[in-house]
Amino acid sequence: MADLVRMAAIGKRYGGVQACHEVDFVLGAGEVHALLGENGAGKSTLMKILSGDITEYAGSIAINGTPVRFSGPTDAQAAGIAMIHQELDLVPGLSVADNIFLGRELRTTVRTVDRRRMEREARELLDRSGVGLDPRRPVGELRVGEQQLVTIAKAISLDARVLIMDEPTSALTSSEVERLFDVIRELRNSGVGIVYISHRMEEIAKVADRATVLRNGKIVTSFDPRKLSTAEVVEAMVGRPVQTMFTTPDSDTGDELLRVENLKLKARRPRPGRRDPDGISLTVRSGEIVGLAGLLGAGRTELLETLYGVAPGGIRTGRILLQGRPIRPRGPRQVLAQGIGFVPEDRRASGLVLFHSILANTVVSSLPSYGRLGVIARRMERTASVRMADRLRLKFGRLQDEVGTLSGGNQQKVVFGRMLLTEPKLLLLDEPTRGVDVGAKAEIYRLLGELAAQGLGVLLASSELPELVGVCDRVVVLRDGRDVASFSTADSGEGDLLAAAMGHGEMFDEVGGV
Amino acid sequence: GTTNERASGGASPGASKSCKGTDGKYTIGMSQANVAEPYRQRMDDDIKAAAKDVPQFDVKFADAAQDNAKQVADVENYITQQIDLLIISPNEAKPLTSVVKKAYDKGIPVIVLDRKVEGDAYTGFIGGDNVQIGREAGKYIAEKLLPQGGNVVELKGLAGATPQAERHEGFVEGIKGNPKVKVIAAASGDWLREKGQSQMDALLKANPKIDVVYSHNDPMAEGAYLAAKAVGREKEMKFTGIDALPIPSGGIKAVEQGRLSATFTYPTNGKEAIAAAKKILVDCGTIEKTQTLPTRLIDASNAAKIYAEENPTG
Amino acid sequence: MTDVQDKVVTTDKMSVAATLFRFQSVFGLIAVFVAAIIFSPRKNGAILFVSADNLANVVRAVSEIGIIAVGMTFVILIGGIDLSVGAVLGLAAVGSAVLMVENDWGFLPSVVLVLAIGLVFGALQGVATAMIGIQSFIVTLAGLQIARGLARIWSGGQGVAIAYGDGPKEAPTSFALLGERTFGGLVPIPVIIFAVVAIAAVVFLRVSAFSRHLYAVGGNEKAARLSGVPVVRVKIAVFAICGLLASLAGIVHAVQLNQGSPNDGIGYELDAIAAVVIGGTSLAGGRGSVAGTVAGALLLGVLNNILALNNIDSNIQLLIKGLVIVAAAALQRLRPTS
Amino acid sequence: MTDVQDKVVTTDKMSVAATLFRFQSVFGLIAVFVAAIIFSPRKNGAILFVSADNLANVVRAVSEIGIIAVGMTFVILIGGIDLSVGAVLGLAAVGSAVLMVENDWGFLPSVVLVLAIGLVFGALQGVATAMIGIQSFIVTLAGLQIARGLARIWSGGQGVAIAYGDGPKEAPTSFALLGERTFGGLVPIPVIIFAVVAIAAVVFLRVSAFSRHLYAVGGNEKAARLSGVPVVRVKIAVFAICGLLASLAGIVHAVQLNQGSPNDGIGYELDAIAAVVIGGTSLAGGRGSVAGTVAGALLLGVLNNILALNNIDSNIQLLIKGLVIVAAAALQRLRPTS
Ligand SMILES: Nc1ncnc2c1ncn2[C@@H]1O[C@H](COP(=O)(O)OP(=O)(O)OP(=O)(O)O)[C@@H](O)[C@H]1O
Ligand SMILES: Nc1ncnc2c1ncn2[C@@H]1O[C@H](COP(=O)(O)OP(=O)(O)OP(=O)(O)O)[C@@H](O)[C@H]1O
Ligand SMILES: [Mg+2]
Ligand SMILES: [Mg+2]
C-alpha cells in the first residue's frame, strides 16, 4: 500500500510552546489512523498543518510521493484533503445545504446558485450518514450534536482522499457514533485515508487500523490498537500507568440535597429543536453523583439550564427543592448564591473569555471573597487561583497567560475550578469531559469522587455511557424531556441505559459490551 | 448668490389670487434652513412674535437641519398641505430654486429671506447684503480701529458656505483704503464658538502681535476673546463680529459688556417677512421684489439702546 | 445503514410565526402606513398623505438614503459598518458637478468616473479593513474625513451649481433627465433608480454564490475561511459596492438639487444605518435582508413625511424619531432566534 | 482581566517587544510629540509648540473630549458604543446655563442636577440595551436625537449666555472658577478635572471587582453571565458612568465658553471614539485601557494643535487627520497577540 500522506520532521512553535517537534507521520490509503494523546499533545496542530490551516511550520509533507506546501485550506482541499475541525465551524445564518456547499456552491448554467440541486445532494449526504435533517434549516437552530453531523456530512461531500476527523464524536451519543463508524468503514473500503482523533478510548479499538500516540508534540509510539488493551494505550499517552479510570464511589450518601418534582417548562417563545423539561422528577443526595443519560436532544442540557435559571423565559411548573426548601431559579447569580454551580457544555462559547488570563477566568465567579468594599486583594485572588490550579493539576505556564492558549482539557479545568471556588453544595455538569483526554478525565473523576466524599452533590449529564456507569452512583435516563428510568450503576450496565434512552430494547445487543 | 436681480416692482400674478382679505384664515409655511444656527433660530422667533399680532395667520415651521434635500422635501410637504404663503430661508440658492418655483407656479406667494434663490420665480426677497456687511466691517477696522495700520487676523465661517465667501470678499474691499492694515493670518472657525476659541489659541501662539480679530460671526469672536483672555492678551487687541443678534448670548450684549468692539447687524427680517405676508394676503397689496435691509454698526455707544429696542418686552 | 425516516425534523410548526417575523419590517411598514393615513391631515375631504403626488414625494425623498442603505446592508451583513457613505455622496455630487460644468465633460464619462471613484474609495477602505485588519468603524471614520476633505478641495469649498445646456460651463441636458419624473410625470427617476438597485440587490443576494460567501463572512468568518471562501476578496468587494452605491446616490443627489456641494450628505450614514437596522439586519453580521432595508427606509420616509405634514415642531420630531427607532429595534428582539 | 491590559508584569520576564507594544499608544504619543516639536513653527528661536502656554492649551483643548473618552472607554470595553455623548454634553451645557442663569439656582444644586441628568440618561440607555437587548449603536443613536431635542427645547433653541455675579439672571461666580487657571495661571482647571477623572478611572479599573466584571462582559458576555457576573447591572452602570462623564464634560464646556448652547458637542462622539481606538482599546470589547485612551486623546490634541500652529488649510487637515487615525489603528494590528 502506497503512502498517501507522508509528513516528515514537522515542527511548530507557539511562543514558548513547542506544539509539534520532529513529527513523522504516515497515512496509507484505506487506512483509519487514530491519533492519540493528551490535551495539548499537538494532535490538532499537526492536522491543521496537513489541512493547510496552519501555513508556517518546519518540515515537509508529501502526498502520494509528491512534495506539497499548502498556502491555505482551499489549496489542501484541491489536493484532496478535508478536515472536520474540533471546534464546530459552521455559519449559523446559512442553511444546512448552504453550509455543506459553502465555498464550492453548485451552479446552474447561468452561474446562479442551484439551490434545488444543493438541497437534494445535501439530503442524500445526510441520509448517508444517517441523519434525517432538513437541509433547508438554518444551522444556528441545530443542536451541537446535529451541527457535528453536518460538519461530518460536509467533509464527506468533499470526496477527499484524506479525511481528517478531529474529535468528530465529542457531542454525539452512541447511536450516532455507530452510524458514523459505518460511514468510516465504507470510506476506508473505497481507499480513503482517515485520520481519527478522539479521547474516547473505546472508539479507537473499534474503528482504527493503526494508532499513533503524541506526547508533548513528539511521537511516542505507534501500534495496532486491536492488539493493546485500553490501559496500555492510556499508559502510552500519559507516560505513566493510570490505575483505575473510575474511582468507584463509596455510595456513602447523605441527606437529600436536590429534589425536582414534575418539572415542566413551557417556553414563551419555543425554539425549534429545543426539548424543554416536560415532567422531570429526580433527586440528588449530598455525596451522590447522579448521571443524566439520553440521546441527542433528550433534554439533558435543557434540564440543567432550567435548574440554573438560564433557560429562556416561559412558564415553569413543578417544584425544585434545595435541602428541602423550594427555590425558583432566576439566574446564575441568584442560583450560585444558593450554592449551585454549573459547568456549561460549550466551554469556548459559554465558559471562557479566551483572550483573558487564566487568573481572571478562574476567579470571576468568586470575586467578592477577595478583598472588601469592591476592591480586589490581588494576593488573595492569586493564592486562590494557584491553589485551584494545583488541585486540578492544571498544565499551564503563567497565570497571566491567555486561557485560549491552553489545551482543551485544561480549559475545561479552568471552568471547573471557577465553580469550585464558589464552594457549591451542588454541581450541575454538562458534558464536563467533552474533548478532555483520558489522564485529565481520570483526574476530574477523582476530583468528583473527592468532592462527593466531602458531601457535595453532583448532577452529571454525559453522552459517554462508560463515564456515566463508571462515575455515577445512579443514572437517570431522559427521553423527550421526561425521565423514563433510573438505574443504580451497581447493578446495571451501559446496555440498560441505552435501551431506556432509545425507548425500546432492540439495540441492546448491538452496543452491549464495549 | 448675490447676483443682482432686476428690481421688478409689481406683484406676481399668482399673489393676488390667494388674498381673501381680513376675514380669511391663512396658513403660512416657514421653511428654515437650520435652526442650529442662532441667527436662524432668532429668525423663526421673530416671525413667531410678529405673527402673533396678525390674528388671521397661523405659521408652521420646518427645520431642514442644514440639508438641501431635506429642505426640498419640507417645501414639497407645504405644497401638499396647500399652504397660503411660503416663507423660505434657503440653505443654499441653487438647490432650492426649482422647488420654490414649483410652489410659486402653483400660485403660492413666496417670500424668500436672507439668501436669494435663482431666477425670479418668487414674490419677494428680503435680505441683507453680506458683501456690504463685510465691506462695512473692513472700513470700520481700517478707519476707526486701525487708522495707523496694524495686524488683523480673520476668523472665517464654515468653508463652503456662501456668507463666508461674501463676508470675506467685502472685507478685503473694505480695508483696501488703508494699505497699512495687514491680514496676517486666517483660520476657519466653522461658525462655532469653540472652534473660534481653539483656532485663536493657535493664532495667538503663532502671532505675537495681533491688533484686531475680524470674525465672520459673533460666536467665533466671543470664542476668540475667551482664548485671548486665557493668556491675558485680551486687552492688546480688539474684536469685531457680525450678526448682532438681540439675544442674551448674542453680539449686541457682547458689545454692551465690552468684549467686542463692534458688531454689524445682519437683520433676520422676520418682522418684515410677516409684514410683507400681511400685505399680500390680508391687504391684497403688492410688495417690492427685492428689499435689502442695510446693516447697522453696533458699538459701545448704541448697543444698550438697540438691544432694548429689539426686545420691547424686556 | 439503518433507515431513519422517522427522525426527519418537521419544519411546519415554525412556519406561521417565523414567516410573520421574517417579514416583520414589511408589517412594520404597513402598520406605519396605516397610522400615517389615520394621522394624516385632510384638506377638502382628501387624505393628503395618500395623494399620488405626496407618495411620490415620500419615495423620492428616501431614494438617496435607500440607495445608500442597500450598500450599507451588504457591509453590515459581513459584520462591518461604513461611516463614509455620506461623505462619499458629497464627493460624488461635487465630482459630477465639477466634471460636467467646470470641465465640460460629457454625461457618460462623468458618471462613469464618479462611480469609479466611489468604487475605488470603497475598495481601498475594504483593503484597509480586510488586509490590514483595522476595524471598519475606524477605517470608514477616517474615510469620512478624507472624502469630505477631498470634496472640499475639489469644489474649491463652494457648492458648484449645475446649469444645463450645450454651451461651455453647462452640463449636458441628458443629465437633467435623471432628476425628472416619468410615467405621466408621476414617478421620479430617482425612485426608479432606487427600485432598480433594490431589486437587483435582492435578486443578487438570492441567486449568487457571492451572497452565500457574504453571509458566511458575516456569520462566522473563520468557518468561511476554512471552507475556502475568499474572505478578503469578499470584504473588499462589499466595501467597493457600498462606495459605488454611495456615489450613485451622490449623482442622484446632484441632479435633484442642481448642485454639487462638499457639504452634501452630512449625517446620511446614520440614517442609512437606521434604515438597515429597522429593516431587521443585525449589526453583528450574517443575518438580514435588502427587502427589510427597503422597508426600513420607506418606514423612516413615511414617518418623516407624516410628522412634517402635521407640522410637528422640529425638536419634538427629534424625540419622536428617536423613540420610533428604539421601538423598531426593540421589535426585532421579539424574533424567535436571537 | 486587568492582566490582559496594560499592566506591568514585573515578576515575569517579558520580551522587550511585548512591553513596547503594551505601551504602544504612549509611544505613539511620544512619536507625535517629537514630530510636533520638529514641525512646530519657531518665533525668535523659541519652539512655539513646547511653550508652557501652548502645552496648557493643548491639554485644555482635549480635556472635554478626554473626559468623554474615558467614559467611552468603559462602554467600548463592554463591547458597546455610545453615540449620544456629544448630545448629552450639549444637554448638560444648556442645563447648567439655564439653571444658574435663568432659574438662578446655586452652583452646587445646578451641578448636581446636571450630573444626575447625564447619569440617568445614560442609565436609561443602559436599560434599553441591557434589558431589552437592543444594540447600543441604535439605542444611543436614538439617544443622540432625543438628548439633542431635549436640549433645544430646554434652551428655547438659543445658546444661553452665562454672566457672573450675585444678581438675578447671573450665575454664581464660584462657577466661573471652573474655567480659570491655577498653579500660577498655568494649569487650566478643566485639565485638572480631566486628570482627576482619568486617574480615578485608571485606579478604579485596576483595583475594583467591578472592573473585572466589566472586562468579562466585554470579553464573552454569555460566559460572564453563566459565571454569575451581574451582566445587566454592569451594563447599566457603565452607560450611566458614560452619561455622567459626558455631562461633566458639558459643565466644563459651558464654563469654558460662558454659554450653554443646544448645539454644543456635535460630532464629539466620533472624536472620543477615535481617541479610545487610537489608545488601543478594541471595539470588540474586553481589551483595552484608560491610560491608552488618555494617550490617544492627547495624540489627537497635539495633532490638532500642530496643524493649527502651522496654519494648515482646514481641508488638508481633514485628510491628514483621517490618515493619522488609520495609521494609528494599523499600528494596533502589529501587537503580537491579535
Ligand atoms: N493558537 C495558539 N496559540 C498559542 N498556543 C497554541 C495555539 N494553538 C495551540 N497551542 C498550543 O499548542 C499545543 C498543542 O495544541 P493542540 O491544539 O494541537 O493540542 P491537541 O493535541 O489537539 O489537544 P486537545 O486534545 O485538547 O485538542 C498546546 O500546548 C496548545 O496550548
Ligand atoms: N434550536 C435551538 N436554538 C437554540 N439553542 C438550541 C437549539 N437546540 C438546542 N439548543 C441548545 O443547544 C445546546 C446543545 O444541545 P445539544 O446538541 O448538546 O443537545 P444534547 O446535549 O445532545 O441533548 P440534551 O438536550 O440531552 O442535552 C443546548 O444548550 C440546547 O439548549
Ligand atoms: Mg485538538
Ligand atoms: Mg447537551
Question: Any overview of this molecule?
Answer:
The complex is a heterotetramer, with 1 copy of chain A (514 residues), 1 copy of chain B (314 residues) and 2 copies of chain C (338 residues). Chain A has 514 residues and is α/β, with parallel strands linked by helices. Chain A has helices at 43-50, 73-78, 96-100, 115-128, 144-157, 174-189, 201-207, 230-238, 300-308, 332-337, 347-350, 358-363, 378-391, 408-420, 438-453, 465-471, 494-502, and strands at 3-14, 17-28, 32-37, 58-63, 66-68, 81-84, 162-166, 193-197, 210-215, 218-223, 256-267, 278-285, 289-293, 314-322, 325-326, 340-343, 426-430, 457-461, 474-479, 482-488. Chain A folds into 3 domains: 3-238, P-loop containing nucleotide triphosphate hydrolases (Rossmann fold); 244-339 and 424-514, Rossmann fold (3-Layer(aba) Sandwich); 353-421, no CATH class. Chain A is built from 17 helices and 20 strands. In chain A, the strands form 4 sheets. Chain A has a 6-stranded mixed β-sheet with strand order 6-7-8-3-9-10, with helices on both faces. In chain A, strand 9 and strand 10 (218-223) form a beta hairpin. In chain A, helix 4 (115-128) crosses helix 5 (144-157). Chain A is globular, with a radius of gyration of 23 Å. The two termini of chain A are 31 Å apart. By secondary structure, chain B is an alpha/beta fold. In chain B, 41% of the residues lie in helices and 20% in strands. Chain B has 11 helices and 12 strands. Chain B has a 6-stranded parallel β-sheet with strand order 2-1-3-4-5-11, with helices on both faces. In chain B, helix 2 (38-52) crosses helix 10 (270-281) and helix 7 crosses helix 8. The longest helix of chain B is centred in the middle third of the chain and has 16 residues, at 130-145. The radius of gyration of chain B is 20 Å and the shape is elongated. In chain C, a hairpin with a 2-residue loop joins strand 1 and strand 2. The longest helix of chain C is centred in the C-terminal third of the chain and has 27 residues, at 231-257. In chain C, 61% of the residues are buried. Chain C contains 14 helices and 6 strands. Chain C has 338 residues and is mainly alpha-helical. In chain C, the strands form 3 sheets. Chain C has a two-stranded antiparallel ribbon. Chain C has a two-stranded antiparallel ribbon with strand order 3-6. Chain C has a single domain (22-40, 49-333), classed as ABC transporter involved in vitamin B12 uptake, BtuC (Orthogonal Bundle), CATH 1.10.3470. Chain C binds chain D through residues 83, 128, 132-135, 137-139, 141-146, 148-150, 152-153, 157, 270, 273-274, 277, 282-284, 314-319, 321-323, 325-326, 329-330, 332-333, 338, and chain D through 83, 128, 132-135, 137-139, 141-146, 148-150, 152-153, 157, 270, 273-274, 277, 282-284, 314-319, 321-323, 325-326, 329-330, 332-333, 338. Bound molecules: adenosine-5'-triphosphate (2 copies) and magnesium ion (2 copies). One magnesium ion is lined by residues 43-44, 86, 166, 408 of chain A.
